[in-house]
Every structure is written in structure tokens, then in C-alpha cells.
């Protein structure tokens, strides 16, 4: 279990991590999501005692990292795949680490086999590809058979087979009751692997919640409606307090109504429907909704104020339904403004 | 869990359920680290070849010019003279090894891996220093004695060789290995502070090589006193068998150099402790 309380890191005037509170529990794969520069790596370094928090603290299994007697037996971490002396062989790299924590040396060959590096174990790591470096880093993390594992961008540089392997590895580790904390910017990968999420933006924890709850809370499912009479059906649906957006191709996105309800309304008024499909939001959509305003560096245009700007915890936690995000132009608005948008 | 936390708060009580790595474990790990990178071997080989080779070369230089020297100049030639000069050229290489064992970890990112394995930084640094000091002490003694014996073989052709039994010679030769070990430790401290290989090597070079030369140009009595206490002048006093003017007494000189080393290492530990890795 990893527990952060008021964890803060400032570099001069820049606040990299701002009063972060979160808990990473055993038995789950917890994804650590955030845009670049949001504070993910800084947070992970503070968990490992590499960076000292400006204030607050973070514990692993109830203790601060530097207090752990044999840390590799309690926490395994993959931070930077190439954090290896290039002149040292993979096996010797792992032997150094094993010895420093009193881990039996036969474990070195076990983890080498586990990650599939036995054939190159005696070669200097300077010749390793990014994927091999990543596997060596994972071997190092597994060395002490620790109950807590942390991976920073573990699928970087892995081929599809390697990605599948690490996804299954992380799931199995969690299924064994271990705590697995994994950061990634690859949303689709995270959606497949993680079942719990800690979301960070501009150093602040925006959500600490289950995957499903997070998506439900931050992205609204909608129903896609195609009809040749969109200009008539749209206002009719909007009049029922359902939010209706018009796509460029005249398809309607209807929020707050089920497909059944919309179908019934259409039938009652004799509209022809060409498509009526409920759309489940993706993790990516939910993430973009939540952090769209907190991305440090927008592609063009000045950054807008932070989401949920001001005080109080962001409302996303606990999976409470949120007010729908500020809408694109809706039929309702258009009616007031007069005329439809194309 | 909640019942266990009462024992873990503050008091570092060893918990039978939690294994604890010992200092010996960390030492063994640092030993494996230093012997499993090729640069250790090459640096030690280069340092040894330069010191031993220059000792022999200077012994040849002395013997070939000995007949032309004035009686005064002849009196200045001691059995340890060739190795004294050779040390001046070769010692920086042992400093490079001291720099490399730590800057190689910084430049490759290995430092973060190392500190997640051994988060108590004074323990990590102490183990590293002990292993480095031990390795350079053993190699340094071998180099020092080999330099002495080989150069004596050459000096013997002009009957100006000495033996370990002569006054102060054993101290000078044995002290040479200790001096090299201290140089490596000082360089380790500089490496921790500077973190970059090239920068740290330049600092070591200035401290050990350039300062000693600059000291020779300082004017007056004041300049001579300062020159005596410059790091490489103080340290190499141990290589002088019989006390000379313009040089600190041997043990005192080595003690001054050891003090500089201790100060550098203490400063290194202080910044190492407070800095983010």
C-alpha cells in the first residue's frame, strides 16, 4: 500500500506536486495518469525517497522509503529503463542490486528467465535495445519479490508482444495481492490494464477512483442519432431537457436520454431514424474532459484556468456524477440565437 | 496493520517479518560494482603503468646523466627520487578512478537505481568509499613497491640504489600506496559534488597537478609556506625518505592531505544527503 498525505514538491516558484493525497491499494493495478509535466515522475521519485518532499509525506507499507531495511524486498520500481551502467552485464547489474539487499543470487537467474533475457545476460547492457533495457528494469523490480511494484511508463519501447506480456504481468502481480502502481500516458493501454486510477494535473490530484467510476463521472455517455429530419427532431429532443449537439454531418449527439426514450419520441412523431446507437465514453474522453484545462502546455493558445479552479477538492473523486462539461453549441442555444448551425 | 504501526513509528526496531540488509551486504554489492565494469581495470592499469614506467624511465635518466652532475646535484638524488617524480605524473589517474566510480552512476542514471536499493545515503557512500579505498590501497602498494624495486635495479648500475632498510625508505614506499588511496577518496568526494565526469576530472587535475606547479611560483617566505601546504605538495611529502627543507615532514604532510580528503568527503556527504537524486 502506498499512501501520500499532503505530498508537495516545489522547485523554486514552480510547484511540481501540490498537496497530493492518494492511496494505492493492494490487489489492484492502479494507473497513474496525467499529461506530461503533471508531476507523475516527481511523485514516483518522492515515493522512492529519491526526491525529498517540500512538505507532506508518502509511505510504503506504513513506512517512509528510507526507513525500509531491505527496500528491494518491499518495493520494486522501474523508473528509467536505461538507468544502468552500460559497461556492466545484465547479470552483474542484477547481482549488485541483489547483494545490496541480501537477496539470494539464484534469484538473479530466475528474474532473467522471467523477463526472457537469459541469452544476453552476460553481455554489456550498452548493446541493449530500448525494449531489452525495459525488460532488465522490470527484472530489477521483480528481484526482491516485493509486495509493492511501481512502473513508470513500462510499455515504452516494447513491441506488441512485449506490451501484452507486461499487461498480463501487471494483472497477475495484482491478482497475487500485490500493490501495482503504473504510470502511463497511453490511455488505451491504461484502460486495458488498470482498474483503479489516480489522475494528476498540474501537480494536483484530480481523481482517485475506480476506472469505471472515473469514466462515468467525467465523460457522459450519449446516443448517436441519424435522421434525415435532424432539423426537426433536434429541437424536439432539446425541448425535453436533453442536451443535443449537432455533428458536422447533421448527426445528433443526445445526452441524458436512453436510446429507448429517443426511439419512442421519434416514433411518436413519425421521424425516420437511420441510426440510433448508444455510445460509451472512453477513458481518453474522460481524461481529456478532466484534464483538458490542466494541461501545462497547450498546443497553441494560452492555457485556460485550471479545472475546478479555486479551492476545495476536485469533484471527480468518489465517482459522483458531475455537472456536464461546458457544452459545444447545442440546439437549445441555437434556438435562442435563432437558426441552425451547419 | 494498525496494531503493528505502534512499533514502527520512530523507533527503528528490527521486525523479524521485515528483512534488513546489513552493511556487509552493501559492501559486497559495491565490490561487485567496481570489479564488473571494464573502466576500473583499464584505469588501474593505466595508473600503474604510468607510475611504474616513469619510475624506471627517470631512473635511467638519473643514471645516464649522473656522471655529469655536480656533487651538490648528486647529493639530491635519493633512491626514491624516480618514483617521487613518477607519482606526480601518475597519481591523477588514480584520481580519475575515484571520480568514475561515482560520476558513471550519475551520468548513466544508475545512481537512482542504486539509491532505491540503498536509500540510506551515508551507508551507500561509506561502502563505496571503503571499497574504492581498499582497492586503490592494495593496487597502490603494489605499484609503489614495484616502482621502487624496478627503479633500484636501474640505479644500481651507478651504485646509487638504496634498500627498504635505509632510513625512511620503507615509510616512503609503503606511504606511497596510502597516498594513492587518499587521492582516490578525495576524487570520489569531488565526483559526488560535481557529478559530471569531465568536470570532476578537471577539478582533480587542478587540485593535484596544477596547484603544485603554481605553488612553485609563489614569491618569498610566505609563498614557500603556502606551497608546502598545497594538496599534492603536502601529500607527496610522504615519498621523501629524509626530511627536506621546503617540504612538510612526511607524516605531517600525509596527515594534511588526509585532512583535505576528509573535508572534501564531508562536504560531499552533506550535499549528497540534501540533494535530490
UniProtKB/TrEMBL annotation, chain A:
Family, similarity comment: Belongs to the ABC transporter superfamily.
Keywords, in A-Z order: ATP-binding, Nucleotide-binding, Transport
GO molecular function list: ATP binding
Region (Disordered), start-end ranges: 296-342
Descriptive protein name: ABC transporter ATP-binding protein
Family matches, as InterPro entries: AAA+_ATPase, ABC_transporter-like_ATP-bd, P-loop_NTPase
Record field: compositional bias (Basic and acidic residues): 333-342
PROSITE patterns cross-referenced by the UniProt entry: ABC_TRANSPORTER_2
Stretches assigned to the ABC transporter domain: 2-227
TrEMBL record, chain B:
Keywords from the named record: Membrane, Transmembrane, Transmembrane helix
Region (Disordered), start-end ranges: 1-20
The keyword NAD is assigned to this record: no
Ranges in a coiled coil: none
Keyword Transmembrane helix listed: yes
Membrane-traversing stretches: 41-65, 85-104, 125-149, 169-194, 201-222, 251-272
Biased composition (Low complexity): 1-12
Matches recorded under PANTHER family: INTEGRAL MEMBRANE PROTEIN-RELATED, MEMBRANE PROTEIN
Name of protein: ABC transporter permease
